[in-house]
Amino acid sequence: MTISAPSDPLASFRLDDRLIVVTGASEGIGRAFAECFARAGALVVLASRRKDKLESVRQAIVASGGRAEVVTTDVTRLEDIRILADAVGALAKENDRRLVLVNNAGFGFTKAALDTSEEEWDVLFDTHVRGTFFCSQKIGAMMIARGYGKIVNLSSAWSEATDAGKSAYCAAKAAVSHLTAALSTEWAPLGVRVNALAPTATLTDFTARVMASNPDRAKRLLERIKLGRFAQPSDLLGAGVFLASGASDFVTGQTLFVDGGFTT
Length: 264
What we know:
Layout: E1 18-23, H1 28-39, E2 43-48, H2 51-63, E3 67-72, H3 78-94, E4 98-103, H4 118-146, E5 149-154, H5 167-187, E6 192-199, H6 205-213, H7 215-224, H8 237-244, E7 255-258
Parallel strand pairs: 1-2, 1-4, 2-3, 4-5, 5-6, 6-7
Helix pairs in contact: 3-4, 4-5
């Protein structure tokens, strides 16, 4: 059998047929994803706790010719997740687009195991793991009803690597990657692909400040990255578009490391 090459080999990477929900979209990696997805043709739903920052992102997307909607959401609150899912469901009825969820909401955490409090542990897992699970559950149900969907979870190189002060964060991100694999097993027969993207330290405004405050640790981490530099948010966009687009339709259950060789 002869298989002819597509006339446009990049067509499967377009997002014109996608409605993409991005949690944690108000700044950093989430904002970079949202703006990139909109430039590639997606209708983007921006979700985070800060309505003012989300509105700034929405205006930037609209000014560039894209489309975006804002839904204020704290992913640690199930009622907020239900409100987000209802808003996404209403938009899905109005727009004939395939659903994609990017579970990006989260924060970095470095603290010695002996000093980590119960409250810090709970907030970490409520945001990274519980929020990822219940956003996937509520929005994934709509994907299952349609017979197609994509979920992209933000894991981390710390899901595989370890370091002093990272035990709680490593545990949370390892849970995200394993949850990704488990959901893919359950939902692949129903048409929903679930993957994770795992970056190394990425120089958002927040991370850059943290690195500047502890230059010795920053130097030690940098020495572990084989490509010799920290990631920029732009380094993650190609992988994000791939996992959100039709180009990755035969990929599920994977954690894709975009870490400059940090974990190898």
